[in-house]
């Protein structure tokens, strides 16, 4: 990545203008995942108890918050903080002590010899890995909210599991305290050796590294201090009223990319910070990007991204070491009872981008990175008879997958997943909002001059799904 510069130029201001899309990206497959060998809407965590809100601890759902390619036909899928769409206790944002986890899924992408899309995909859950820390974590005791403790009941002396409960934090410290047990995972990327993965979080925000086979956290990365809030709290409203700066509650580090060389993580906040939003002007649409040097563990650059018509960004994935696809969307569509309008992927280039460290939002907006439309998901799905009310509201996970052949031509694959908020699993949407995986195909020509070299494609097939069985997390 080239060295960033700080001076403001009219060339950069003009470069942020949206250019017409030229890509001819097509939908080639669509699959759903609603069951496993453990049963309907059951994952393979081996957890056999009920959460305090009445949901089963092994509930399968919400897994499209993040998706990452592992190797062969194997992907990793990431649910967020758990089933809090059903009313439980508003004082803790309806969250429960659901343990964040990573699902290993074989996708079984095959040519379709019948009618419909050119390929079929049949997702199969292979294993579920729970996320934990060897060092003790801070949990809420629940007494102030008349609820049980936020500590998962499977905790042991050596394993302290993370939890989606919003009160699992130290109120005497900022939201970036790494001892907090609360974790709201939003994006996942696999290290180049396939042995670990990186996960971004909204609560801190945090970026953590975990051992893939065990789920143990082994590292925390340094994010800009301005991303934290000084006074964490249990709900969006209470946290907003207590803080004048930092990430907006429940809109922290949403997207995470890993460069193909394996040396850099690029993370994005979901929306503008509290202070950038409050100032008004173009800065209210500015999302801050943190560029993290993996060897040192430190943030080395901060860049800016301006929303076009979406209300926020849900993921980012690397095309090569300096270009990325950004998932910008609204919250409309299936699961929201409305019609989807904005689910778009934009291509950005960080080469010569202006470092906005220390800039206010309105100043930073004048030097935001340039962007071009790569894929309009609502439009392409519409071309395949998926009406806007059937496009999932939360298109959140994006990843590149293995290449395929079609009509003698090589197609690269882009995999897109939705977070269904566990709504189908509760019957709230009556079986109409499953977790889905959309597979799009594109060629080198569709990239309009960009070189395709995504993370993970140098990974050997020997890394597979691995694991130690469906209840290995309880040992």
Automatic annotation (TrEMBL):
Region: Disordered, residue numbers: 229-248, 451-475
InterPro entries: Phytase-like_dom
Residue spans of biased composition, Polar residues class: 232-244
UniProt signal peptide: 1-23
Domain of life: Bacteria
Pfam families: Phytase-like
Phytase-like domain segment(s): 60-422
Name of the protein in question: Esterase-like activity of phytase family protein
């Amino acid at each position: 990545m080239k060295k960033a510069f700080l001076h403001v130029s009219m060339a950069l201001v003009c470069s942020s203008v949206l250019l017409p899309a030229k890509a001819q990206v097509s939908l080639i497959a669509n699959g759903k995942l609603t069951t496993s060998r453990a049963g309907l809407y059951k994952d393979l965590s081996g957890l056999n108890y009920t959460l305090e809100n009445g949901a089963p601890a092994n509930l399968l759902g919400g897994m499209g918050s993040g998706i990452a390619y592992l190797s062969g036909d194997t992907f990793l899928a990431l649910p967020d903080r758990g089933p809090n769409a059903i009313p439980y206790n508003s004082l803790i944002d309806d969250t429960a002590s659901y343990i964040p986890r990573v699902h290993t899924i074989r996708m079984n992408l095959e040519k379709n010899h019948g009618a419909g899309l050119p390929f079929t995909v049949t997702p199969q859950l292979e294993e579920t890995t729970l996320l934990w820390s060897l060092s003790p974590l801070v949990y809420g005791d629940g007494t102030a909210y008349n609820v049980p403790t936020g500590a998962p009941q499977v905790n042991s002396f050596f394993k302290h599991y993370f939890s989606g409960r919003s009160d699992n934090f130290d109120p005497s410290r900022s939201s970036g305290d790494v001892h907090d047990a609360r974790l709201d995972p939003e994006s996942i990327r696999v290290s180049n050796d396939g042995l670990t993965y990186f996960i971004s979080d909204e609560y801190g925000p945090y970026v953590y590294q975990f051992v893939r086979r065990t789920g143990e956290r082994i590292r925390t990365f340094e994010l800009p201090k301005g991303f934290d809030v000084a006074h964490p709290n249990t709900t969006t409203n209470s946290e907003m009223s207590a803080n004048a700066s930092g990430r907006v509650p429940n809109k922290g580090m949403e997207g995470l990319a890993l460069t193909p060389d394996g040396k850099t993580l690029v993370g994005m906040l979901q929306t503008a910070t509290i202070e950038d939003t409050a100032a008004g002007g173009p800065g209210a649409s500015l999302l801050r990007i943190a560029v993290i040097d993996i060897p040192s563990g430190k943030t080395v650059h901060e860049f800016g991204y301006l929303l076009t018509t979406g209300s926020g960004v849900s993921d980012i994935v690397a095309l090569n070491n300096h270009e990325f696809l950004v998932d910008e969307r609204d919250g409309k569509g299936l699961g929201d009872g409305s019609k989807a309008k904005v689910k778009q992927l934009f291509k950005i280039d960080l080469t010569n981008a202006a470092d906005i460290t220390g800039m206010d939002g309105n100043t930073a907006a004048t030097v935001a990175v340039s962007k071009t439309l790569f894929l309009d998901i609502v439009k392409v799905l519409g071309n395949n008879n998926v009406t806007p009310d059937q496009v999932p509201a939360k298109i959140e996970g994006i990843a590149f997958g293995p290449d395929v052949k079609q009509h003698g031509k090589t197609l690269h694959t882009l995999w897109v997943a939705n977070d269904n908020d566990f709504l189908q699993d509760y019957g709230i949407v009556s079986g109409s909002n499953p977790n889905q995986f959309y597979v799009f195909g594109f060629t080198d020509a569709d990239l309009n001059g960009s070189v395709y070299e995504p993370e993970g494609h140098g990974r050997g097939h020997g890394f597979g799904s691995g694991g130690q069985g469906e209840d290995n997390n309880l040992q």
